[in-house]
Amino acid sequence: MFNKIKPKNLLLIIIVVAVVAGVFDYEPLWAKISSFNPWNLGLDLAGGTVLNYDIDLSQVPSADQLTVVNGLRDVIEKRVNLFGVSEPKVYTEKVGSNYRLVVELAGIKDVNRAIQEIGATPFLDFREVEQATSTSSASTSSEALSTSSASTSLSLAQNLQFIPTNLNGRYVVGAQLSFNSVTRQPQVDIEFNPDGAKIFEELTSKNVGKPIAIFLDNQLIEMPVVQEAIVGGKAEISGNFTVNTAQTLVERFNAGALPAPITLVNQQTISPDFGKNALDTAILAGLIGTLLVMVFMLIYYKKLGIFASVALLIYIAVTLAIFKVIPVTMTLSGIAGFILSIGMAVDANVLVFERTKEELKKGLSHASAIEEGFKRAWTSIRDSNVSTMITSAVLYYFTSSFVKGFALSLFIGVLVSLFSSITTTRTLLRVFDSRDKKPVSTN
Prior knowledge:
Layout: H1 7-25, H2 27-33, H3 43-46, E1 48-55, H4 65-81, E2 89-95, E3 98-106, H5 111-119, E4 124-130, E5 144-147, H6 150-155, E6 161-168, E7 172-179, E8 186-192, H7 194-206, E9 212-216, E10 219-222, E11 225-226, E12 234-239, H8 243-257, E13 262-270, H9 272-301, H10 303-325, H11 332-361, H12 366-398, H13 401-435
Parallel strand pairs: 5-12
Antiparallel strand pairs: 1-3, 1-13, 2-3, 4-6, 4-9, 5-11, 7-8, 8-12, 9-10
Helix pairs in contact: 1-10, 1-13, 4-8, 9-10, 9-11, 10-11, 10-13, 11-12, 11-13, 12-13
């Protein structure tokens, strides 16, 4: 595609993109132009708190443990979002046979309140609805509640009043995902214990044709319409569910229904000053590393090294801009991955220049040697970079968040370096070669 553009025009485009990216990267300058997309700094750079919780699954059947853990994570993540924390991270880890919940709060100020809110066991309850607008449903089962999409149900809540009832999560035995035998649409099966079944029967008898609101931690999660009085303590919630939305509802039911308290076992606090010092040190390390790479290229490859250095600076500006646009939460491990990608970006130029030197020894002209050098080095560059991206993908999907930051920044960096090492450097050399036909020394 780029071969159809004249080298001078392509170089102009690359320079304009690099300048815009550089302005976008430099926060003090960009903040004067726009407030859009400031840098997202992780816990180790912005300061904050890491909370580690043990999840007590002793009262949860082994078959339901993973569902309960996922439900808890979902609920805790919603609680954390209420604090307005920048890029909070909530994830679970399995330590031996036990599960642990990890909450990373970057820049959090009221840590004690966060601990109090996060540590409470999820509370599920059912409420009657007054002044509700009737909602049609296709379900005809005598043991079913039907709902339109969750967004439609929740949008009706603004003009409604919710009356608390005695039915809550302690009466729920569990919930599971199933599929309607006729329509094959996903639905949620919920079961109550004997006491809950009686309360549920009374509740549905009074509200036939009306919705019943389901709350988790005082947040409305669903509002199905009762078709008929439901006896026996088993019900089906049907509607415009996808498999993912139905599974999420199942996990929320089980998180509020089954007892799985969490206990804070470890708390680590990182001060903003420490984070700023870490950021300054990381930036300094990146600058020194980049400078050393450029010095090596200039000393060893002389004039060719100038173009490699310029291409490297363009690569850094463009890659950082991509990090900011996505946006990627910058952490120390992420910066380490980015710095590593800088070395790999110039590595492609080394392969090209070495191939170019071999072609020059064969007697080819300078322009022909450069083109042949890029052509013959491409397969090695492609294979090495693809293998690195595969490794990064494996690290991202099968490791903890600390390594994920490294893997993500390395993957993006290597991907951009493929463009930089081939297109940017080649364009610079083509433009230079068109101005100076004399051979360029590579010794």
